[in-house]
Design a protein that fits this description.
The protein is α/β, with parallel strands linked by helices. 41% of the residues lie in helices and 18% in strands. It has two domains: 86 residues, Leucine Dehydrogenase, chain A, domain 1 (Rossmann fold); 132 residues, NAD(P)-binding Rossmann-like Domain (Rossmann fold, 3-Layer(aba) Sandwich). Strands 1-11-8-7-5-6 form a six-stranded parallel sheet. A three-stranded parallel sheet has the order 3-2-4, sandwiched between helices. Strand 2, helix 2 and strand 3 form a beta-alpha-beta unit.
Length: 295
């Protein structure tokens, strides 16, 4: 039976460390990091995520500046708000909760955020810095989910140098930055996706498998070799029959009960990558605050 990677515990430790840092910063500078959270509309899942992020931020001592806008908000109005937040002194991090309504271009909005206040790490300038930096620089604003995955891997205490890492998924939010982070740890990295020929064979060569494809339980036992480390980024809601009653259940991109028999270590869903993503958002906000003190 494999080791379960407890994302909740690792995230708790990271938040505890951030809380101590913020107390020290407040004593020294008499101010704390500020995170502006912008939500447009009332998508239920977005509201749940915003609530969790706000709660965690307040718990570590980050000031939250909340902006919940109507679904009818225009792109021009949203850009004006972001430009205002870019110039607001008590705002160190800006988070625009995705997805945005269809009439708003997400990339244009993300590009408007001051890269020094980019709490998600999605701005092209920060993505570029991640790509060209020789090492995983602690002062960079790094996309939260991939960085959380890396911290979980490092927490296992295994040497990542030279390991074959396969990332299934090529998104700008997870797949591509995950590959960059693993390359800096001297892994040999393959990015696979839905059009990869013989995906099962490619995954079977992995010492480390990152599943971020967005397809429920797609990665099965026959996809991995014995002793592989599996990080499951997927969060999918599926319907299951329980006592002749249809209920919904959260599952990842891997078939957990199959892979746990072969993997050295594996993340559960929920309780794996999710808590780490939020903790790394708080990390980025704190780093942005520290960087502002030194500028």
């Amino acid at each position: 039976m494999s080791k379960k990677i407890d994302g909740k515990l690792i995230a708790e430790n990271l938040r505890s460390n951030l809380k101590k840092q913020i107390i020290e910063l407040k004593e020294k500078y008499n101010k704390v990091p500020g995170l502006a959270v912008v939500q447009v509309g009332n998508v239920a899942a977005s509201s749940v995520y915003v609530k969790a992020k706000t709660k965690s931020a307040l718990e570590v001592g980050i000031e939250v500046i909340d902006h919940h806008l109507e679904n009818t908000t225009t792109q021009k109005e949203l850009i004006a708000l972001i430009e205002s937040l870019n110039n607001q002194e008590n705002v160190n991090g800006i988070l625009v909760q995705l997805p945005l309504p269809n009439h708003i271009n997400e990339q244009i909005i993300l590009d408007c955020i001051d890269p020094k206040k980019d709490a998600d790490g999605f701005h092209p300038l920060n993505v570029g810095k991640l790509s060209i930096s020789a090492t995983n620089d602690e002062n960079l604003l790094i996309p939260c989910t991939p960085y959380g995955c890396l911290l979980m891997l490092k927490g296992l205490g295994i040497d990542l140098t030279g390991k074959n890492a396969v990332v299934v998924g090529r998104s700008n939010i997870v797949g591509k930055p995950m590959a960059q982070l693993l390359i800096k740890e001297s892994c040999t990295v393959t990015i696979a996706h839905s059009k990869t020929i013989d995906l099962e064979k490619v995954c079977g060569q992995a010492d480390i498998l990152i599943a971020a494809v967005g397809r429920p339980e797609m990665i099965r036992e026959n996809f991995i070799k014995e002793g592989c480390v599996v990080i499951d980024v997927g969060i999918n809601r599926i319907e299951v029959d329980q006592n002749n009653e249809v209920k919904t259940k959260l599952v990842g991109d891997v078939k957990y009960n199959e892979l746990e028999k072969k993997a050295f270590a594996i993340t559960p869903v929920p309780g794996g990558v999710g808590p780490m993503t939020i903790a790394c958002l708080l990390r980025n906000t704190t780093i942005a605050f520290k960087n502002s003190l030194n500028s």
